Amino acid sequence: MLTRIRRRGLVLALATGLLTTQVVAAGASPAAASPQDCEGGANGFRDIPDTLRGTQAPVAPVGIFGRTATLYYGQVGGVTRGWAHLGGDTLSGDSVWMDWTKDGGNTWLQCGPFEVTSGGQTKTSAAQRTSSDANWRFRACLRWGRHEPPHVRCTAWW
């Protein structure tokens, strides 16, 4: 009797996990996940210094264990652009990226990840121009270390 209950519990747990995986897999996903997709002018991005700050976008920064990802915007090369910034108590292996969407978040291009190579270092994504189009949006994301499963936090879309 106890074995049958355990077996039902296991089947229910597996079915729930499979359903959850399918729901997550069916959701939106990035179109790319490489720094090369946004470095050196690719896709309209502009390389910026890792120390660059601008005006904080009106979305709350996200953080974990003393690290903070913030979405900024400002003038870069005479154009208003947005970018992701990672700061705080960073350690080697932490990374930051910026997701950019042109369809309100259904699909996006992931600009990064850009990895911190030494503790205390700040890091930015490349910068992309802003737009008055409501579907043209950004969010900043961070990954803490190289843990599996990854510890990832992203801001809301702006």
Automatic annotation (TrEMBL):
Organism from which the protein derives: Nonomuraea angiospora
Signal peptide location: 1-25
Domain of life: Bacteria
Keywords: Signal
The UniProt record lists the keyword Signal: yes
Name recorded for this polypeptide: Secreted protein
